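Lab meeting, item 3. Inverse folding demo.
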């Protein structure tokens, strides 16, 4: 994680158990905080030291004019700030607060969608192209939730299914989209049913693993020249979408 991923310009409200503070990240070297109520109420601009820890996680430290020192671990994946404060009196405070974004950063800094898309793509190809049952433990949470009523709950059940897959089963990924902790992927699977099926899989990611799954399958219908239709699935659709997004 590079320092240029620090969300400069973002404004957030942090709700701690006993008070709320508003932060504006002015740059990688300065922030403004506002505490409206309580014994700590004041507004100040401070010089900061920022250390990127990885995956939208940053350590941000500063010293205030009254001598108080603060170290925040800002976790934008989970929407949390872990704050460690030494007051001028020597009292030490440890607090965790939740983040509410009131103004987005000057540029997109959240790389979760790209990481989550890569996770889903690896899972779908590992299980349903390479038939690698060992990937289930690596990529799925132990309490994996399955919304397909024809598939039992849990990671162990999924692993048994992959172990028993016919060699005819083969998955082709297509368009994939992601936002926050959700990923949807459009694909085609052969050998799962009597005819090829087009499927949309929706996943929820939790702590870097697949935690929940929904899917919708439909038998693929060939395009007929008389109707002039468009195919239900094109394996190049994902490539085309990625190129357009980068243009």
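The presenter then showed the designed sequence:
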């Amino acid at each position: 994680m590079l320092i240029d991923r620090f969300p400069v310009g973002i404004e957030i409200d942090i709700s701690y158990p006993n008070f709320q503070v508003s932060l504006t990240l002015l740059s990688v070297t300065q922030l403004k905080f506002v505490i409206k109520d309580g014994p700590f109420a004041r507004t100040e601009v401070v010089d900061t030291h920022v250390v990127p820890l990885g995956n939208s996680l940053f350590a941000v430290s500063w010293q205030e004019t009254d001598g108080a020192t603060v170290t925040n671990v800002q976790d934008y994946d989970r929407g949390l700030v872990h704050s460690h404060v030494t007051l001028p009196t020597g009292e030490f405070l440890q607090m965790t607060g939740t983040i509410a974004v009131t103004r987005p950063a000057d540029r997109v800094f959240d790389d979760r969608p790209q990481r989550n898309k890569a996770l889903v793509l690896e899972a779908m190809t590992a299980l349903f192209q390479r038939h690698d049952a060992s990937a289930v433990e690596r990529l799925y949470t132990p309490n994996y939730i399955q919304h397909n009523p024809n598939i039992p709950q849990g990671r162990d059940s999924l692993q048994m299914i992959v172990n028993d897959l016919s060699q005819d089963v083969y998955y082709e990924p297509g368009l994939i989209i992601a936002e926050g902790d959700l990923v949807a992927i459009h694909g085609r699977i052969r050998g799962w049913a009597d005819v090829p099926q087009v499927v949309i899989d929706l996943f929820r990611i939790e702590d870097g693993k697949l935690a929940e799954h929904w899917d919708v399958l439909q038998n693929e219908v060939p395009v007929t020249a008389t109707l002039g239709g468009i195919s239900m699935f094109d394996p190049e659709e994902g490539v085309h979408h990625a190129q357009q997004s980068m243009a």
